[in-house]
Each structure stands twice: as structure tokens, then as C-alpha cells.
Design brief:
Elements: H1 2-6, H2 10-38, H3 43-63, H4 74-82, H5 86-103, H6 108-136, H7 142-162
Length: 163
Amino acid sequence: MASKETSLNAGDRCLVYGAQAVGCIAGVLSIAMGVYNCVTFSANCFVAGIILGVFGFLLVVFEAPYCCLMFECTDKVYDFSQRFPPFLKAVIYIIAAIIPLILCVSSISMWFACGLLAACGILYGVRALRKKIDSSGDSGDGAAAANRDTEMSDSRTSLVNKN
């Protein structure tokens, strides 16, 4: 785990820790807002509150297992969740934010908690896109594009000359 931490540059490290911090805050707030939404007269908001509380608890276990030291399985669940690619985490967190919001649109507390949950997903999405851009090797400058163009033209001329 230490080799993974040391291989991150400053921008990636900020995204990783920022997403985990937002995930921890969003998880605790989702649990609180889920309990708050359970005290309602609407059946949809009651179900949405339960779902939001469960998603909040899972988010805290996935992102901040030190908040749940009383459970022995949190380390295993955390290690399992760290094997997910960032893009998959982004999709899961954004879908988890949409489901309770569809059930109870009228609650402002639901919007706030689901917004933080979606923000965590968006941070993981940015991290996944950044990883993809870094792995492609394109730094975004014109020199790399010009280098690729000359390589393409060289390969075309070698194909033409062989025939």
C-alpha cells in the first residue's frame, strides 16, 4: 500500500484524499439525513431515508474505515473497495445519489445529502479521467501531436516504398 501512495503525484494525492474526505463527510451526513427523512408522513421519503442511511453507512465503510473501528470486518471491506477502479466508484456513488433523490424529491435535506454523495462520485470521475489522460501519454501540447503526425507519415512512406 505504501508503494501506491508514493507513486501518486501531488494532484492525484489531492484528488484521492479529497474524495475520501468528501466521502466521509457525505457518509456521515447521509446517515443523519436518512434518519431525519425517516421521520415523515410520506412513505416514499421514509423508504428514501432508509436507503440513504444504508448508502451513507456503506460510504463511510468504503472511504473512512477508521470511523467504524467497532466492526472487525471494516478493514476487509475497505481493502476490497480500494481494488475498485475510480471510474466504477464514480458510477456507483452517482447512482447511489440518484436513487433516494428520485423517491423523495421534495426534501431539501435529501438534496443536500445526495449532492455531497454525487460530489464524491464526481471527484472519483475526475480522478479516473485524469488517470486515463496520464496513461495515454498525451500531455496536451502540440509537440506530442506533431511527433505522432511525423511517425504516421514515416510509416506511410515506408509502406508505399515497400510496394
